[in-house]
Design a protein that fits this description.
With 140 residues, this protein is α/β, with parallel strands linked by helices. It has one domain: YqgF/RNase H-like domain (Nucleotidyltransferase, domain 5, 2-Layer Sandwich), CATH 3.30.420. The chain is built from four helices and five strands, in the order E-E-E-H-E-H-E-H-H. The longest helix has 24 residues. It is globular and about 40 Å long. It starts with a strand and ends with a helix.
């Protein structure tokens, strides 16, 4: 069964999430520290695509609360272009990611996760939320 990969693309950290083999649930995969170097991230994505049958990549698109594109959205669009060129055999989608990091932080606070550990997993959890929103939208 083909899987869907969710990406919360940030300037220095990227959260990754993936569907289970049946496409029923989304689970956190990892947070990649790339410090602005997309080559590091693309190398990690090569590994994931090789190890899992990825049919779709969903990238969170950062908009302002009023719905307009943020500066981050322009940077994210450049990253999307790299994905389209490199993985032209994989469907590429975007999802509005507004408030996913806020929701991830609220969840981690509710669970009383240590603040140092929280920094390591908040982007991965945000990617899970992005992926879940996409799954709900397309009703896998």
């Amino acid at each position: 069964m083909k899987r869907i990969l969710g990406i919360d693309y940030g300037s220095s950290k990227v959260g990754l999430a993936i569907t289970d083999p049946l496409g029923i649930t989304a689970q956190g995969l990892e947070t990649v520290m790339h410090k602005g170097n997309d080559k590091i991230l693309l190398k990690k994505l090569d590994e994931i695509i090789e190890n899992y049958e990825i049919s779709t990549i969903v990238v969170g698109m950062p908009y302002h609360m009023n719905g307009t594109k943020s500066e981050r959205a322009e940077i994210t669009e450049k990253f999307l272009h790299k994905l389209k060129c490199k993985y032209n055999h994989i469907k590429l989608e975007t999802m509005d990611e507004r408030l996913t990091t806020v929701a991830a932080n609220k969840t981690l606070n509710f669970l009383q996760v240590d603040k140092h550990k929280k920094k390591e997993i908040e982007d991965t959890l945000a990617a899970v939320y992005i992926l879940e929103m996409y799954m709900n939208k397309v009703k896998l």
